[in-house]
Amino acid sequence: SLGALMSGQWRASEARLEGAELAARLDESGRLDWLVPAIAIDPDSIAIERLDVVDSRAMFSDATSGAQIVLDKLEFRGELRSLLGPVKGEGSFVHAGHRYPYRIATSRAGETGMRVRLNLDPVDRPLIAETDVLIAIEHGVPRFEGSLQLARPVGRTSDGIIQPWRFTSRIRGDSASAVLEQIEFQYGPEDRAIRLRGDANLAFGVSPQLVVSLAST
Predict the structure, then answer these.
(1) How far is CA 92 from CA 49, 60, 100, 142, in A?
(2) Mean per-residue pLDDT for 135-164?
């Protein structure tokens, strides 16, 4: 009960959350604003060994650009050690008509931020995305730093063979811009691949812009 949460520890072996709606937005200054209950609860007072989230929704919006991302049919199965983490589990969501299974693991949030490891493997798309980033909120502005990897495995269609490719990079930035460093892009099978290296700058906002510099030997 709510009274138990406010007065002491609440530990559960199993819990189920159905039809939840989560919302977060970036305001005009790039600060993060999210809807959370205004209740004084000790973040360490909640721990769930098995948490099931089903038929839920997550919405992210940017006031500057007007962009909005909606994740429908959000599901999660895993464990929640506290409201500050760590969190570990897997699930799926639907975006723009495509289903995305995912795996996620986070560290406990601390003074330096929270480390997030996320893996996406779309059901009907030959693409795998992995990221390992440290996320921190400084004066309301989210900042991140870590690594990013995108890969398309070799495949086959009625038109022929789909060539594999892999993209890896270090990434750091905030709600306004991001820098991609040590980019390595490989196209084709290992024995005859085209390889490019370089960096890129990405600006968000009303007029997003990506400037890429790549070279090959």
Answers:
(1) 19, 17, 5, 24
(2) 89
